[in-house]
Design the sequence.
């Protein structure tokens, strides 16, 4: 994939790719005709899209690294992970985002071997190697136990593959984005994708209809996977949209707000600025519809970091008074639901500390038992994908397996499953990444600094949120954070290589 297509020598390959798009357009329509009215409509749309791509590719390159990352971003946002798979008879679920990662990784490796594009980890090789190495060693030491506990061969490798996807996406982002312009394009895709999901969440809050639960009715090649998620809190619906859980959705949406604000400040016209501000309000309202306490912790963290880096933002504090009003009218009852969540009848401290060792126990209840488990395998832990039966198994129906203990704290979960080495690697990668972006934002000025501020604010929000939910179990939000950290370090690398005129480069 090339960033541009220039020169007569590229004309042949470009026309060949245009021909491929034309064939795909015909195939897309032909495949959907026997499947019914809804697939035909989708097939017609896909076919027309391919024909448009054919016309564009004949004139200039469409298949570029930037566009490929944009498509991947949309796949992550719009196809529920662990919600749909391609209907093939395989020993594992072949999900769409996994195929995208594999295709992009193979393309990157091929480009690297052809000496066209060097691989990069953004100068964070130690953190990446420690994190990846700890998970690999943990897999090798615990594979047989994990397979036995899950009653299926390959369960350990499957859990490891989810983890590897984070590392591969980080590698892709750090290796293929070449300029501030391409990075801004990816950021626009992140925010627009988040806004689409937010719009669907708002619709779900009003109608209780989740459009992402019906993709298999429209799109061939989508096999729906069962999702068991509690969507009620205090009688209030907690929207899910394209996420695996309302908490993960809330955090994912909040991570987009700093970038929407960045795009609003960078807009060339007043109307474009208002457009990004409108998307910011939409995303904030949809986040409130999840009725998530974690969301407010993330927002508070991001506000503190943003004000620390940009003290001039304090003059806009009256805007904060408008946000609850907008949320109240957009999602009636959402604020009341969150207030009840912070002040449950049994008390907040009791709800977080109770039910130790039971399925879905309080966030802080399992710290003691987790330390006991960790002490059995202190260096590399019990392995990703390992589960520990809860103590409420005698309350389950006969023949039904007890609920696993869920550590609603990613640091505790990693401590048990990856051991001390894995926890250190995770802290180096995520906390080290967030702190590094924070410092880089302090050392720069201008638009580059504004973008680094957005990356640092979002990354800090995520690393704090990991104290409150098992983030790695929710692939979408973790992939988004990994992309954000990768974008930030790519900005740092580009600024060192060629500072933008009128700006101070990163030291």
Sequence:
């Amino acid at each position: 994939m090339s960033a541009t297509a220039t020169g007569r020598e590229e004309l042949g390959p470009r026309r060949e790719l245009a021909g491929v798009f034309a064939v795909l357009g015909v195939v897309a329509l032909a495949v959907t005709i026997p499947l019914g009215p809804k697939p035909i409509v989708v097939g017609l749309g896909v076919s027309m899209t391919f024909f448009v791509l054919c016309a564009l590719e004949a004139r200039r390159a469409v298949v570029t690294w930037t566009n490929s990352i944009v498509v991947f971003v949309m796949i992550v946002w719009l196809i529920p992970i662990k919600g749909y798979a391609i209907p093939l008879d395989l020993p594992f679920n072949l999900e769409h985002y996994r195929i995208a990662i594999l295709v992009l990784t193979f393309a990157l490796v091929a480009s690297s071997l052809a000496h066209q594009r060097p691989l990069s980890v953004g100068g964070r090789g130690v953190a990446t190697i420690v994190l990846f190495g700890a998970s690999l060693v943990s897999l090798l030491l615990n594979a047989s136990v994990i397979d036995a506990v899950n009653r299926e061969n390959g369960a350990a490798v499957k859990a490891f593959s989810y983890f590897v996807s984070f590392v591969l996406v980080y590698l892709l982002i750090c290796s293929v984005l070449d300029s501030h312009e391409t990075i801004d394009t990816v950021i626009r895709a992140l925010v627009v994708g988040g806004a689409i999901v937010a719009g669907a969440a708002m619709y779900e809050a009003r109608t209780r209809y989740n459009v992402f639960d019906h993709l298999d009715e429209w799109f061939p090649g989508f096999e729906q996977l069962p999702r068991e998620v509690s969507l009620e809190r205090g009688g209030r619906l907690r929207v899910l949209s394209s996420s695996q859980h309302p908490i993960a959705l809330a955090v994912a949406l909040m991570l987009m707000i700093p970038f929407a604000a960045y795009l609003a400040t960078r807009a060339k016209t007043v109307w474009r600025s208002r457009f990004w501000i409108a998307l910011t309000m939409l995303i904030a309202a949809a986040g409130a519809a999840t009725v998530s306490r974690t969301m407010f912790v993330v927002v508070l963290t991001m506000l503190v970091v943003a004000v620390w880096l940009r003290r001039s933002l304090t003059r806009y504090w009256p805007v904060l008074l408008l946000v609850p009003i907008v949320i109240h009218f957009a999602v009636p009852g959402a604020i009341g639901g969150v207030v009840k969540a912070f002040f449950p009848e049994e008390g907040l401290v009791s709800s977080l500390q109770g039910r130790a060792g039971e399925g879905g126990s309080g966030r802080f209840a399992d710290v003691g038992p987790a330390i006991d488990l960790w002490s059995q395998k202190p260096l590399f832990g019990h392995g990703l994908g390992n589960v520990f039966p809860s103590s409420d198994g005698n309350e389950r129906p006969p023949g039904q397996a007890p609920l696993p203990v869920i550590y609603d704290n990613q640091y505790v979960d990693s401590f048990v499953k990856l051991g001390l080495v894995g926890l250190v690697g995770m802290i180096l990668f995520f906390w080290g990444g967030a702190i590094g972006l924070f410092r880089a934002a302090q050392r720069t000025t201008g638009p580059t600094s504004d973008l680094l501020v957005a990356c640092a604010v979002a990354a800090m929000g995520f690393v704090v949120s990991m104290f409150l939910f098992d983030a790695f179990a929710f692939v979408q939000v973790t992939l988004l954070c990994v992309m954000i950290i990768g974008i930030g370090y790519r900005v740092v690398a580009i600024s060192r290589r060629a500072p933008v005129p009128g700006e101070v480069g990163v030291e």
In short: The first helix runs from residue 11 to 32. The chain has 17 helices and four strands.
